[in-house]
Amino acid sequence: MTPQLVLELPNDVRAIARAVDFVVSRCQAVDSDPRKVRLNLRVGLTEALSNAMLYGNGRDPAKRVRVEIGWDGECVILRVSDEGRGFDPTRVPDPTAATNLWKVGGRGLFLMRQLMDEVHFNDAGNSVTMVLRCRQCPANGPGVDA
Amino acid sequence: MGFEVEKVGDVTVVDVRGQLIVGNRQELKQRVLHELDDGARKFVISFENTGYIDSSGLGVLVSLSKKVREHGGDLRLAGLNEDLRTLFELTKLDTLFEIADSRDEALRGF
Fold first, then answer.
1. Which value does ipTM take for this structure?
2. In Å, how far is A48's CA from the nearest CA of chain B?
3. Residue B53 phi/psi, 5° resolution?
4. Which domains are present in chain B?
5. Number of compact structural domains in chain A
């Protein structure tokens, strides 16, 4: 991906809302489905940033989070990278299992996978790439109707 | 962005204004726990003025619901817009909470 937009964020959760609002406003013009950008993209990016700041960078204010955004006529691609040691995304339990429903955490990655069309981690587990396909794309993903 | 707390009879109504996210979830938690310590047992969390809830916000609602139940109380949700309702349905949290269409409907249900 050649990013058209790059954000370097401080490792501060108070920066998330403003950064997400900015990206969503830029992507509204890319995708003709307002709800997909308003909900799916917002959730995917918010959760990826939260995970990067809280767990990846371990709340360390000296670290930073990098966001790269690229788009074409078919999709928006977001990459969120932290400076942590990474994690194994296959070991995150299903928060909708009956035994996990009352747990306080563990829903962020689940929501990313539910609402983005593709979610890929690098081998180290400290960079996630998400794809949101536009409505008119022939390989249209499930979006919020999945 | 903030929280407005109002007493309607013996029900404590918390109006979530703007967003309930990782950056302000602790404030909601402290406001509700303070009311719980003061003896409140019936709560309505109203989202009629809320644009977005992230997974941390969902988590704090689960945590507060557990706390209120441990004290013999009841915490209900109200006024979720279509996007917010989708998040509750995807995570199956709609099965844990009593969710009213509006704040007034939630109050009538107590």
1. 0.92
2. 11
3. -130, 130
4. 2-109 (3.30.750.24)
5. 1
